[in-house]
Fold this sequence. Notes:
This is Membrane protein YesL. By secondary structure, this protein is mostly helical.
Amino acid sequence: xxxxxxxxxxxxxxxxxxxxxxxxxxxxxxxxxxxxxxxxxxxxxxxxxxxxxxxxxxxxxxxxxxxxxxxxxxxxxxxxxxxxxxxxxxxxxxxxxxxxxxxxxxxxxxxxxxxxxxxxxxxxxxxxxxxxxxxxxxxxxxxxxxxxxxxxxxxxxxxxxxxxxxxxxxxxxxxxxxxxxxxxxxxxxxxxxxxxxxxxxxxxxxxxxxxxxxxxxxxxx
Length: 221
């Protein structure tokens, strides 16, 4: 949990430090998300832009547009796969839990619940993984995301819980939702994956979670 809290601190710091960038990127995300089917590609483009920003790229719209072009197909595939797994699994789980099928029903319920939980955890990792490893084929990427989620379930659950809390705060304060929410969550997902990958490839995926608020109180200057 301490690492997850440090990731939240890092995400909040980077979002505030780049406030103008965060607001502009959020507006692009909102414009591209009005048709609900495009939320996946728009979210992928946000993560791609955050990644390019971390590499020193400063042009917002060209990066976002490039992200849409590169990531639309795999993110749509992820969204469709999510629907194909989550909707039937949730319906089946409801039917199993609403009736008594003995120990067989309980076993099936736990199995379906495991599938639903793992599908959510895999998505938390899969989206930023698309950005960091764009050449990886989708089946291999899903396998890697599944292995990471399986090896670090508590870390992923803590991050998912904290992102849910951040989302509730932003929904309660609509100005935050309309100006920074997707970028804040994007930073959280991006740094979380870097943190996990740095355990296995510390040179390639180095991440410094230290932050300093000195001189950062006026990000518009």
